[in-house]
């Protein structure tokens, strides 16, 4: 007997008294012979009265259970039990429940909570956001009174923000602790690890760089320590749960320790408001800073990349580089950038850098020869990058090397080791010389590791710890000059580095609430290769792999990348004035891109305060591609899970909830229909309400990606009878993030010509025909939800330009229309003179002709 409960046991649920709580229990009753007997399912809870009592759940009949569980074995049939409990008469406070089950033939109950502390917890609030956000800082967040002279207030939109500062002495670099007391009305908290679902802070021995809190009023509080003026701050707690600001003052004198607090009604808006406030404090234009970085990133990281970190298994030198690039090329994967990780530099046994040049025995001609050969053999590789640490190598520079003759060094105590670092006066010259050499060799980007190591220098060496700023300034200036900011930051979670991210030097992708989600490289052939690939595909961040040569899962990689048609321009050598737009032809050599969302992925609201590795809930991560939503679901538990999700739980749904086109457009205050496509299960589901529950079952180590597309409507006429066409575009359904390929989709008016293999359909011949146009990036299997009311679907034709496509299939049961856009279809699309989408990239225009009797 399999039993699943939502809300799950061990979870914590916040609910307002104005809303009811719904508890659902699924039971797979494998005792076929006992099924006629009544199965009694009860909540055992203290919700109704002060003492514990039972509440029986009602079993849904077959009609109520008509929506099948996605991913359920066809031979399995779950019985569903449900109860809706109003909260209006429940006092504010903490409650618990568990579930017990009994069959008539059983002597006793089967309890789902076996041990103490395994119940589900519920916090009932008087009403969501019942206390206004304009309360003063002391009463709304902290129990202890904070001197208002230490607080700088700012209203960021609808979010109240404060910067709390306190003057601290130098204390010779030793830690200083300021206790701000307990957090008021704390019911849940989240960190970057995360640590979740607690009612008091318990971070006595951790340096915490970001805290998000949900209060009993329904408000969200974001707390971020700052690093500035020689003070490095982080959060800890005392044994009672009081908030401690943990400070290292390396300034050599008195300085200000600061942290920012934001309080609002939305966790994500509150977090972003804190970022904006920090930029305001530091005098940084966040919009300008982020937009400039986005421009730099956009071209580079829309390609799939490769890093040697895990891939070479101890091998070094140019041969494994060619081995892995050749093996990827053989399976049709074109790497856009390549990163040579640790192992190429000349270092001593104390892990100190000796020379700029790579190891002579592994790279006898330096990098110049190998990079030239790589780009000749694999012309699609735009950048060859190399790895190094912020100090040059892990323990700095060798004091007796040729580098020590060019740059002055000092001896520093670091984590019980003696290291030698270049002094700040010479670090700009070091980076200038180093990057000048790398660029001359053909290197086009860098990955800089160990950026938090300055925090590990002994507290007493304040002067050396302050060098971090000069080092990072030198890195920033020279990486911009030589590599146009093509730089990957690694091991950059120290308060110093985080502060630079928060102060506007990072893009939106580095907001603390996003940062833990699905970053860095993975191996496609690994046991969890697809599990991680799918996560990175919807993350909005770069996607790069570290496969072992000749060990690839081509099926996984093909779902990450898309081939893009381009124009070849033919110009006469004797006629430089030739108009290139008149002689363009589609290239047969198609470059590749990853389908990268424009914004970073976020946890859905239901997953925000849950640790899905410890609680029986699916991890839910969401993103948006224009008006199409993407929801990723991951089972992080070692057993089967059955869970629910709702569309209005997908963050950003309200702001993206605009359905239809033209006169048929509906807005977020109306109820529309949505078509859902389940990537792994190949299923389609139509949802009529954002509050309709969708149940799904996933095995251990499994995932699902759900494309949520608003349904477009159009009314047509056939033989004096009107009909309504319903259609929703899913994009490329053979890709993890296939909806990112959709540029636009719309019904075309009858004045627009229809295409077939013989030419244009005449105006008189359009009875019962509806035309739909989709603009796409790349080719693959394009999927649509398609249905109609008051008519019979006779045929659906698809055209690429004027070419009638043959690979068109319609599954009438699923209402799924799939169209195969093959490479040959793109290549034979003929000469076209439309404006290019991006540089040499061509958008694919797909036309549907829907014929109704």
Automatic annotation (TrEMBL):
Protein origin, superkingdom: Eukaryota
Catalytic activity, reaction form: alpha-D-galactosyl-(1->3)-1D-myo-inositol + sucrose = raffinose + myo-inositol; Hydrolysis of terminal, non-reducing alpha-D-galactose residues in alpha-D-galactosides, including galactose oligosaccharides, galactomannans and galactolipids
Keywords, in A-Z order: Carbohydrate metabolism
SUPFAM superfamilies: (Trans)glycosidases (SSF51445)
Signal peptide boundaries: none
UniProt KW Amino-acid biosynthesis keyword: no
Molecular function per GO: alpha-galactosidase activity; galactinol-sucrose galactosyltransferase activity
Entry-linked Pfam families: Raffinose_syn (PF05691)
PANTHER family with a match to the protein in the record: GALACTINOL--SUCROSE GALACTOSYLTRANSFERASE 2-RELATED, PTHR31268
Similarity comment text for this entry: Belongs to the glycosyl hydrolases 36 family.
Protein name: 22291_t:CDS:1
Organism: Cetraspora pellucida
Lineage start: Eukaryota, Fungi, Fungi incertae sedis, Mucoromycota, Glomeromycotina
């Amino acid at each position: 007997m399999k039993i699943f409960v939502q809300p799950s046991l061990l979870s914590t649920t916040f609910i307002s008294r104005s809303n009811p709580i719904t508890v659902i229990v699924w039971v797979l009753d494998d005792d076929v012979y006992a099924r006629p007997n009544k199965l009694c399912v009860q909540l055992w809870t203290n919700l109704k009265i002060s003492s514990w009592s039972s509440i029986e759940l009602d079993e849904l009949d077959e009609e109520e259970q008509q929506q099948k569980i996605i991913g359920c074995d066809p031979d399995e049939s779950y019985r569903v039990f449900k109860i809706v409990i109003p909260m209006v008469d429940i006092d504010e406070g903490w409650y618990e429940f568990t579930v017990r089950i009994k069959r008539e033939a059983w002597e006793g109950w089967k309890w789902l909570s076996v041990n103490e502390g395994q119940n589900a917890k519920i916090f009932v609030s008087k009403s969501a956001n019942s206390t206004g956000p304009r309360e003063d800082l002391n009463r709304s967040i902290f129990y202890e009174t904070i001197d208002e002279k230490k607080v700088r207030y700012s209203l960021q939109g609808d979010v109240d923000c404060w910067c709390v500062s306190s003057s601290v002495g130098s204390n010779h670099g030793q830690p200083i602790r300021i206790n701000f007391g307990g957090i008021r009305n704390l019911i849940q908290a989240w960190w970057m690890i995360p640590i979740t679902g607690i009612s008091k802070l318990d971070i006595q021995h951790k340096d915490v760089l970001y805290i998000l809190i949900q209060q009993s009023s329904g408000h969200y509080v974001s707390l971020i320590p700052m690093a500035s003026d020689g003070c490095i701050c982080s959060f800890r707690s005392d044994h009672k749960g009081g908030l401690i600001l943990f400070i290292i003052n390396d300034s050599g004198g008195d300085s200000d320790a600061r942290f920012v607090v934001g309080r609002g009604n939305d966790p994500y808006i509150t977090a972003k408001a804190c970022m904006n406030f920090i930029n305001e404090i530091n005098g940084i234009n966040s919009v300008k800073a982020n937009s400039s970085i986005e421009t730099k990133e956009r071209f580079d990281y829309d390609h799939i990349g490769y890093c040697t970190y895990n891939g070479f298994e101890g091998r070094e030198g140019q041969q494994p580089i060619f081995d892995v690039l050749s093996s990827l090329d053989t399976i049709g994967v074109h790497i856009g950038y390549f990163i040579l990780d640790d192992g190429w530099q000349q270092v001593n046994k104390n892990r100190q850098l000796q020379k700029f040049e790579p190891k002579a025995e592994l790279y006898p001609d330096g990098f110049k020869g190998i990079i030239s050969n790589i780009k000749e053999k694999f012309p699609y590789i735009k950048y060859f990058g190399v790895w190094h640490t912020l100090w040059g190598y892990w323990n700095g520079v060798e004091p007796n090397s040729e580098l020590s003759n060019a740059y002055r060094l000092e001896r520093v105590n670091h984590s019980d080791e003696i290291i030698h670092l270049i002094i700040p006066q010479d670090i700009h010259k070091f980076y200038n010389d180093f990057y000048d050499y790398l660029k001359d060799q053909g290197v086009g980007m860098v990955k800089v590791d160990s950026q938090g190591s300055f925090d590990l220098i002994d507290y007493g060496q304040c002067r050396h710890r302050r060098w971090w700023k000069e080092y990072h300034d030198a890195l920033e200036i020279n990486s911009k000059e030589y590599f146009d900011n093509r730089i990957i930051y690694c091991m950059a979670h120290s308060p110093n580095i985080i502060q630079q991210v928060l102060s506007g030097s990072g893009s939106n992708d580095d907001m603390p609430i996003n940062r833990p989600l699905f970053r860095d490289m993975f191996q496609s052939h690994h046991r969890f290769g697809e599990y991680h690939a799918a996560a990175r595909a919807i993350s909005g961040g770069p996607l790069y792999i570290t496969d072992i040569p000749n060990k690839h899962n081509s099926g996984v990689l093909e779902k990450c990348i898309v081939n893009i048609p381009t124009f070849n321009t033919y110009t006469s050598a004797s006629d430089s004035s030739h108009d290139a737009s008149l002689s363009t032809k589609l290239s047969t050599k198609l470059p590749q891109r990853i389908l990268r969302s424009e914004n970073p992925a976020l946890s859905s609201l239901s997953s925000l305060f849950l640790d899905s590795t410890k609680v029986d809930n699916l991890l839910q991560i969401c993103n948006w591609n224009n008006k199409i939503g993407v929801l990723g679901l991951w089972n992080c538990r070692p057993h089967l899970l059955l869970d629910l999700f709702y569309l209005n739980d997908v963050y950003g749904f309200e702001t993206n909830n605009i359905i239809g086109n033209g006169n048929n457009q509906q807005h977020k205050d109306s109820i529309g229909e949505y078509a859902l496509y389940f990537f792994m299960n190949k299923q389609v589901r139509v949802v009529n309400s954002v509050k309709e529950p969708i149940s799904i079952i996933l095995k251990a180590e499994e995932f699902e990606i759900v494309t949520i597309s608003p349904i477009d409507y159009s009314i047509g006429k056939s033989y004096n009878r009107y009909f309504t066409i319903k259609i929703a575009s899913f994009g490329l359904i053979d890709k993890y993030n296939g909806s990112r390929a959709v540029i636009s989709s719309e019904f075309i008016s009858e004045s627009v010509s229809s295409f077939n293999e013989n030419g244009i359909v005449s105006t008189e011949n359009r009875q019962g025909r509806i035309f739909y146009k989709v603009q796409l990036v790349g080719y693959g299997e394009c999927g649509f939800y398609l249905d109609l009311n008051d008519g019979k679907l006779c045929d659906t034709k698809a055209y690429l330009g004027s070419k009638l496509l043959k690979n068109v299939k319609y599954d009438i049961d699923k209402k799924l229309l799939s169209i195969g856009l093959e490479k040959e279809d793109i290549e034979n699309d003929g000469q076209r003179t439309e404006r290019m989408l991006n540089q040499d990239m061509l958008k694919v225009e797909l036309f549907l002709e829907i014929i109704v009797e």
